[in-house]
Design goal:
By secondary structure, the protein is an alpha+beta fold. The chain folds into 3 domains: about 120 residues, no CATH class; about 80 residues, no CATH class; about 110 residues, no CATH class. The longest helix is centred in the first third of the chain and has 19 residues. The chain starts with 13 loop residues before the first strand and ends in an 8-residue tail after the last helix.
């Protein structure tokens, strides 16, 4: 087994009898130690005292007066945000329940906190895996990707990493290449992850500097399908089979879920009979078919039919996946 994403806080969580993740004091402390709250050298005494008290007792109540006493306006607002987040975390029995509730109702949580929660949950879902490609594919759930399609190859690189290495000096030229998209992608060993070098992922799991080939039927595409299966099973308690497809047959198209905002808009438009220009259609980079062996898992109108999933790049060539769509938009007979 491989340990990975050590800084996501998974090891600070506990599991309940159902295998769901439970927030601990140490998990809360990790949030207090984030740059948003860790006192800077010029922090006032009131801010330092409040921070030290939360490290000692992560669940202690904090009064409005204590926050108002902090001299720095940005620090005051950061405390309000984090403590509101803490209140919502502790109101839910598990981290999964907190995450699910984020999308059932209008809850104000910083996007970075949502992505971090997604990563921690995925770390638990993938605990014990041996395939580095699955861990790399799971990065799509919580990190924005930069997509390049050149000579038929669909390559995904971490958007933040590409920006950091846009000069190419620390990324073997790949960052600049993906940023400019003016030349074919070089199949650089240990940069582009595949079956032959998937074990390399465990050495650089928190560098987010490997590239995933999402071509139809390729190992990276199949790895993403397996992660989608695990995600659905974990949250909904149902077994599904996910496989990539090249197109959606009209006679089987009863339900679809876009895995990002662009795919949602495009699939809705096509399903409703709209015309799609060719250049926009090329931005669809992945289609998947979800089969439900248990027909009773779906609503009567969808029972026995597959559900199709889509991935598409935004006009700027990026992909921001929305895994919450698989929580809210599947035609299930009942929600977990």
């Amino acid at each position: 087994m491989n340990d990975f994403w050590a800084h996501c806080g998974f090891k600070l969580l506990e599991r309940n009898g159902d295998g769901r993740l439970v927030v601990t004091d140490d998990y809360l402390r990790a949030y207090y130690l984030r740059p948003e709250l860790a006192p800077v050298p010029e922090a006032c005494d009131k801010e330092r005292a409040l921070h030290a008290s939360l490290i000692a007792d992560p669940r202690r109540e904090v009064t409005d007066a204590e926050i108002a006493a902090i001299a720095d306006e940005d620090a005051r607002e950061n405390y309000r945000v984090v403590l509101r987040f803490r209140r919502q975390l502790l109101a839910a029995p598990t981290l999964e329940a907190f995450y699910f509730d984020l999308f059932r109702r209008d809850v104000a949580v910083p996007p970075d906190f949502i992505h971090h929660t997604t990563q921690a949950i995925l770390r638990g879902i993938l605990d014990g895996i041996r395939d580095g490609l699955e861990a790399r594919a799971a990065e799509l759930f919580f990190r924005k990707q930069r997509v390049t399609v050149k000579d038929g190859a669909i390559m995904l690189a971490d958007d933040e990493t590409v920006e950091m290495h846009a000069t190419g000096s620390a990324f073997g030229g790949l960052g600049k290449l993906l940023l400019e998209a003016q030349a074919p992608l070089r199949m650089v060993e240990l940069d582009v992850l595949d079956e032959g070098n998937s074990a390399e992922y465990w050495r650089r799991d928190e560098r987010f500097d490997t590239v995933l080939n999402l071509d139809f039927g390729r190992p990276g595409c199949l790895a993403l399908a397996r992660v989608l299966e695990r995600w659905i099973a974990h949250f909904h308690g149902i077994r599904v089979a996910v496989k990539p497809v090249r197109e959606i047959p009209d006679e089987e198209w009863k339900w679809h879920v876009g895995l990002d905002a662009e795919a949602t808009a495009m699939l809705n438009e096509i399903y409703n009979g709209g015309e799609m220009e060719e250049e926009r259609m090329k931005r669809i980079i992945g289609l998947f078919r979800v089969d439900f062996p248990d027909r009773s898992a779906l609503r009567a109108a969808a029972a026995g039919a597959p559900v199709f999933l889509g991935l598409a790049t935004a006009p700027d060539g990026t992909l921001r996946m929305k895994p919450q769509n698989l929580l809210m938009n599947l035609p299930l007979a009942r929600r977990a």
